[in-house]
Structures are given as C-alpha cells and as structure tokens.
Amino acid sequence: FVCDAVQAAGWLKLEPGRLGIDALSISAHKLHGPKGVGALWLRRGPDIEPLLRGGGQEEGRRSGTENAAGIAAFGEAAEIAGSGRDAEAARTAGLRRRLLDGLAPAKAKLLGSADHAAPGIVYLQFGRRAGEDLALKLDAAGLAVSTGSACDAGSRKASGVLKAVYGSEAGRGGIRVSFGRFTSEGEIDRLIAELRRLA
C-alpha cells in the first residue's frame, strides 16, 4: 500500500506502521522547507526495484550524491511543523471554515468534506464559472489560487482523481485554495470578497 502523504504532512500525525502502509512519501516544501527535497518511508520487507543502480549510501536503492543541506533544512522544517502541529492545524481549519462560511452566499460547491479533510486545502466550484477564468481574475487581484495540483499544471483536462471520486461533477472545473502557516484572516476575507464579486 503506497500513500502520497504530501498534503497531510504538517497537519496530521503520520503513523505509517500503525496504518499498514508499505511506502509513504512527503515533501519538504509543504512544510515551508526547500523545494526539491522529499522523504520516502519504507516498511521493512517490500522489495523496491531501483530506477538507477548504485548508491551504497542508500542500500543500493538510489545512486548520486545526497543533498545534505536540503535534507538538513527539511529536518528543521519538519521539527518546526511538528512542534506546533495541533495548534496550527486548528488555526488553519478555522481559516478553512471562515472561507466556506463566507462563500455560502456565492453558492460555492465544495468537493470533499467540510469537516473531515486536511485543513490546508480546499477545492471549490462556482456554477458554470470556469476555474481557470476565476484563477486568472484572482491573480490580477493579487490572490494566488490554482485550478488543480502542480502535477496537472497546464493541463486543460479535469483531474483523473477528481473524476474518479466525483464523476461528471469534476469536469466543470474549479479552484484549489491552499492555506499555510503564514495565511491570515485578512487574506481569507479578501479572497471571499473577490470570489463573491466574481462568482
């Protein structure tokens, strides 16, 4: 069982061994660490076939020089995120709730659960209004949102994951709003005002 826990890191307590996970991946930049640094947790036992041969320092799983500075910075970012995780998750969940409540008059449709979700992300649709159009107009107003994950950047097709979970509803497109340690109530209120004006 392979788990992409990139969006969960920093918000939720990750216990892959207890949850029966065989491989779990996380990324430093989601914890305000450096981009391009990640971690892969492996349960003892699974035989992982390497893409590149070599790398005695990685038990033959990966060749190349380790990014020591990036790894150290990732460790520091993880330490900071872990020390205040519960309080920060509660604060960010409050921002998420503030956004959803503020957008009720705009008839925003949430894809996902309002209560059982990682607090740092929300995906919204606004009737027939294209997510790409909203994202461009918000960008012009100085507010950064996206229409999907970075993996799908530039793609005009609906996310395969969203289509698998939500069917035809996902095809209408929407915007993804991400929250972080430095997101403020004032920024959420600005976003609410702009979305209510545009939608």
Task: Name the features.
three-stranded antiparallel β-sheet, 199 residues, 5 helices, three-stranded mixed β-sheet, alpha+beta
Please give a structural write-up:
The chain is α+β, with helices and mostly antiparallel strands and 199 residues long. It contains five helices and six strands; from the N terminus they run βββααββααβα. A three-stranded mixed beta sheet has the order 1-2-3, with no helix packed on it. A three-stranded antiparallel beta sheet has the order 4-5-6. Helix 2 runs parallel beside helix 5. The radius of gyration is 19 Å and the shape is globular. The chain starts with a strand and ends with a helix.
Physical arrangement of strands within the biggest beta sheet: 1-2-3
Radius of gyration: 19 Å
Average pLDDT figure: 86
Percent of sequence in beta strands: 5-15%
Task: Please report the total strand number as a whole number.
Answer: 6
Low-pLDDT stretches? none
> How helical, in percent, are the residues?
25-40%
Shape: globular
Order of helices and strands: EEEHHEEHHEH
Biggest beta sheet attributes:
3 strands, mixed
Based on secondary structure, the structural category is alpha+beta
Q: What distance lies between the first and last C-alpha atoms, to the nearest angstrom?
A: 40 Å
Count of alpha and pi helical runs = 5
Quaternary state of this entry equals single chain
Offer a quick outline of the entry:
This protein has helices spanning 68-83, 85-102, 131-140, 160-166, 185-198, and strands at 2-4, 23-27, 38-42, 109-110, 121-125, 175-178. Helix content is 33%, strand content 12%.
